[in-house]
Amino acid sequence: MRHFEPGPESGKEFREALSRFGTGVTIVTATTAEGPIGITANSFSSVSLDPPLVLWSASLKSRRFPRFSSAENIAIHVLAEDQDNLCWAFSKSDDAFHHAEWMMSDDGIPLIKGCLARFECRKYAQYDGGDHAIIVSRVMNISFREGDPLLFFGGLTGRFSKTV
Question: Are 29 and 120 in contact (CB under 8 A)?
């Protein structure tokens, strides 16, 4: 087992250690003056049941950050195991909608079809989180289905293996 103190010189190792925590994969979408925008994020979590709040974190260095920071309405899509192409497409490009089957919601939010769960949200708060912003949103509508999730671990996507 490696041991180190986190600091500027150990950023790569810190990131590698964090990658040992397997997470689900989401795509966050919004609408801007230029059109729909999306970004892959694995920093998603529930915050509160009453009121229904969720959070995700966005890098301040991302060129997409200003558009998501100013968005009042977003959708967070939990990806299914067969949607790894969307994970990688939206991690590289904010206009990867041509890879997805999607529609526009009544509130003007791009909604990706086929995901395991979708949370349509209104911005609630935003907090400083070092080199990221923590964006808290109030969930207004939820859609979900049965299926297996897409997971992220060690810099790779994979499938969930069930054990009894």
Answer: no
Q: Does the predicted model carry a pTM greater than 0.70?
A: yes
SS3 139: strand
The span from the CA of 28 to the CA of 91, in Å, is 11
Q: What residue has token string 């009121």? A: 51
pLDDT at 152: 92
All domains of the chain, ordered by start, with CATH?
Answer: 25-152 (2.30.110.10)
The alpha-helical segments, DSSP class H, found in 47-152 are 65-70, 84-92
pLDDT of residue 115: 97
Name the DSSP class of 80: B
How does pLDDT run across 74-89, given as a tens digit for each residue? 999 999 999 999 999 9
